[in-house]
Design goal:
homodimer; Tetracycline Repressor, domain 2; 10 helices; DNA-binding; Homeodomain-like_sf (chains A, B); DNA-binding transcription factor activity (chains A, B)
Chain lengths: 222, 222
DNA sequence: TTACGTTTAAAACAGCTGTTTACCAGCTCG
DNA sequence: CGAGCTGGTAAACAGCTGTTTTAAACGTAA
């Protein structure tokens, strides 16, 4: 059995270690020794550790954006100008997210990486993701806007991030939570189980009644 | 006005740097030089970097658990055996969380730390928090159980973590999100604003309809 | 074959990491 | 007085970090 490409071996090993321990806690020597690759190969092929991190993300996000754009194209064609319901939009996103890493059976890794990217407050990664993949997100939020015309602009913005928090937080900490759930409720949950549970919660969150107008601070722009 | 204690100076500086850059990315030399304290002082007073990290958390969590227990005591006395409504429980928790760091005006730091603690998949911190502060959480979930008798055990467990994800995720990434919101919607949000927006969403999420039993509207992959 | 660019290998690089050591100031108490 | 303690200091420790350098092996084309 021919070993995969050196570049591929590095990426495969790096994404697992990054997901397990974080970026700063994973050294290039950890990666290269486990991948059975020479240390210098990383700098030769990727240039730097930062670039390697970005490459790990790109390997997930590039196919994701491509398929998500395609899925949205299909939806817009199907609905032919009519408003796409919110549930359909959310379902489509979930399907695409689940679909992309399925080939490598590594949804867990993907979600952990997203969680890490978010919890890295400052730095190159957030900028990189924003710059390279912000447009897909914009397109999605535009469609969500059309699907929820009754929501004020700012409210929709915040609610989208609320549910984003729920999903990333839950799926990125899945292993730890699953251990607790299994111990306390003797119930083994799969990722698919979890998404089934997430759906009604997310929909309810987006459709929640508007908050009371601010009482102890300036009223929001109405 | 005399400089604060060496121990306090270390803690004050450490919590800010940890919140800004994470634990691994913050060296003891970063902390001690900014705090104008000798490098060895950290190991002298705390023993190790790990212990310093735990001490930073303890300074928030110890007062929090104390007040939260007190607040729950008051609630149980007030309701005298009757079921405490879910909204009241959530409101009480929010108030306590807001109350604790108000003295140092550092709610933001507190939430960032919680987010970091959660995104650290493995390691000492999760164990430490679980061991030292798990009992308050258990008491709270017991009360939530009584307030939501219609929810299956496992469903309630997951929904609590869903909303926990929303809150921690949003508040710990507050600065970045606030910048976007301000730029796009010209609206400045305070933490209190955000909690006002969070309330109906969280309540709706907890009260969402139960998911379809193991339906398969999602493609079967994996 | 020679020649060439690509890929791997091992070693060295300077710099930073957490921790420990040895020492000193100032204090209290016998 | 000196012993003993506490808090603070500078220096050194061994080890790991990302990156670069040097050398060798490789496959392919002339």
């Amino acid at each position: 059995m021919a070993q995969p490409d050196t570049v591929t071996r590095i990426l495969d090993t790096a994404e697992v270690l990054f997901a397990e321990r974080g970026f700063a806690e994973t050294s290039l020597r950890n990666i290269t020794s486990k991948a059975k690759v020479n240390l210098a190969a990383v700098n030769y092929h990727f240039g730097s550790k930062k670039a390697l991190i970005q490459a790990v993300f790109a390997r997930y996000l590039d196919p994701f954006t491509e398929r998500f754009h395609a899925a949205l194209d299909a939806l817009e064609a199907e609905y032919a100008g009519r408003v796409i319901p919110l549930e359909v939009l959310l379902e489509t996103m979930a399907k695409t997210v689940l679909d992309v890493p399925a080939e490598r059976n590594s949804l867990k890794v993907f979600m952990r990486l997203l969680g890490l990217a978010y919890s890295q407050a400052q730095g190159h990664l957030r900028r990189y993701i924003q710059d390279h993949y912000g447009s897909v997100f914009s397109r999605f939020t535009d469609l969500v806007r059309q699907a929820t015309p009754e929501l004020p602009e700012a409210e929709r913005f915040w609610r989208l991030h609320f549910v984003l928090g729920t999903v990333i937080f839950t799926l990125s900490g899945l292993d730890a939570l699953r251990d607790i759930a299994e111990k306390d409720y003797g119930e083994h949950v799969s990722v698919r189980d979890l998404i089934r549970r997430l759906r009604p919660v997310v929909v309810a969150a987006m459709n929640a009644p508007l908050p009371d107008p601010a009482s102890d601070s300036l009223p929001a722009a109405v």
